[in-house]
Amino acid sequence: MASTQTLFFATKEDLLPVFAAVERSLGLQYVRTGLFASAQPEVIHCGDFLPQLGVAPGDSTNLCPRYLVTMAEMLIKVRRIPQRDGGVKFGIDQLENPDSIVLQTGGRFSSSVFLHGSIGTISSTNASRQTYKVFHSSIGKEFRRIKAFFVGVGCLALLETGVRLTAAAQSPKDFDLSL
Question: For the whole model, what pTM was predicted?
Fold first, then answer.
């Protein structure tokens, strides 16, 4: 399998035109990844409706929610994962859903810290490559490239006012994105 990733800093307002462009081109659905108590995935049919879009729930990009992005008609496969205590959790990820990419939007953690997001895939299926390509192209058209990141207009304005664009609030400032 191939692994491909695009890193970005984007406010909700920066992401809305990306979602609009991608969803005009492809009929998509978004499903939260992770381990859950229920086998029933929560499907969202529009990127604009992702919960807390533009807000980071924790102090690290790793704590921001991730979503499988697939073609709208795709049935999401859920894995049963036995737990040590005898219970079962249900996993939603790319392992059983290779025709997908993973979206993590990042967001504002505090008044002085903004965490990056990403799109990526470990899959090399045609559907995964096509979805990734359309997202990457739209991000490239809407955002400015600064070093290894694409930066939306809203985040660029935050950077210019001194807000840290980073992977984690506790990271040394030497690792922040700078102009």
Answer: 0.95
